[in-house]
Amino acid sequence: MTQQTYQPTDRRPLASRQQPFWQKTAAMLASAGASPNKISVAGLFCGLAAGACLVFTAHVDRWQRVFWLAAAAGTQLRLAANLLDGMVAVASGRASAVGELYNEIPDRISDAAILIGAGYAAGGNPVAGYVAASLAIMTAYIRAVGKAAGVSNLFLGPMAKPHRMFVITVACLYMAVSPHSWIFSLKGQGVVAVALWIICLGAVITCLRRLGRIARHLREQR
C-alpha cells in the first residue's frame, strides 16, 4: 500500500510565501536538512526573548533603546520562523500531523510572552498586556473551533497574529528611534499601552467576525 504524504491544511494565506527571498531561504534550509519543528522551537525562543527585552525596557535607562530594537527584531524573527517552518516542511516533504502541534503551541506561548512582556514594558500597562494575550489566545481558539466545525481559513482580522505583531513592532521601533519629546502619554497610558489597547479592540472585533463566520456556516449546514 502506498503511503500518502501528509499535507498541512488551512495554512495562513501569506503573500510572503510567494516572495523569492523566502522561497530561496526555505529551499536552502530544506536542502541543509533543517528540521521544521526545530524552526518552530527557534521561533518560540525568539518570542520569549522579545518578551524579556520588552520587560527590560522598564528597568534600564542607558540601554533602553537597544532593548526596544531587540524586542522588535525578536518579534519579527518569531514571525519569520512561523513562516519558514511550514515552507521547509512542505519543501522537504517532512510535513506531519505532529508538526501542527509545533506550529500552534509555540505560537500561543510567543503571543503571551510578547504581549504580557509589552504590558510590563516602559510605557506599558500590565492589565492591557494580560487582556491582549487572553484575546490573542481566544482568536486562535475560535479558529480551532471553526476548523472543527468545518470552516476553513479563519485567519481573518483585523487583529490576527501578523497584525498584532506588526502593531507591537511599530510601537517598539517608535520608542527606539523617537526623541524623548515625542514619546507621548494619553491619560496615563504610554505608547506601548496604547498599542496594546488597540490590539485588544481589534482582537475583540476579530473574535466576533470569526464567530459570525462559524455561526453562518453552522446555520447553512442545517
Concise account of the structure shown:
The radius of gyration is 19 Å and the shape is globular. It contains seven helices and two strands.
**Order of H and E elements:** HHHHHHEEH
Number of helices: 7
Shape: globular
Structural class determined from secondary elements:
mainly alpha
Number of strands: 2
Which CATH architecture is right? Up-down Bundle
Rg calculated over all Cα atoms: 19 Å
Question: CATH fold name, please?
Answer: Four Helix Bundle (Hemerythrin (Met), subunit A)
Task: Please explain how this structure is put together.
The chain has 222 residues and is mostly helical. The protein has a single domain (17-220), classed as Up-down Bundle (Four Helix Bundle (Hemerythrin (Met), subunit A)), CATH 1.20.120. The chain is built from seven helices and two strands, in the order ααααααββα. The chain has helices at residues 20-31, 36-56, 64-92, 97-119, 126-148, 161-177, 191-220, and strands spanning 185-186, 189-190. It has a two-stranded antiparallel ribbon. Strand 1 and strand 2 form a beta hairpin. Helix 2 runs parallel beside helix 4 (97-119) and helix 5 packs parallel to helix 7 (191-220). The longest helix is centred in the last third of the chain and has 30 residues, at 191-220. The radius of gyration is 19 Å and the shape is globular. The chain starts with 19 loop residues before the first helix and ends with a helix. 40% of the residues are buried. The mean pLDDT is 90.
Secondary structure topology:
Blueprint: H1 20-31, H2 36-56, H3 64-92, H4 97-119, H5 126-148, H6 161-177, E1 185-186, E2 189-190, H7 191-220
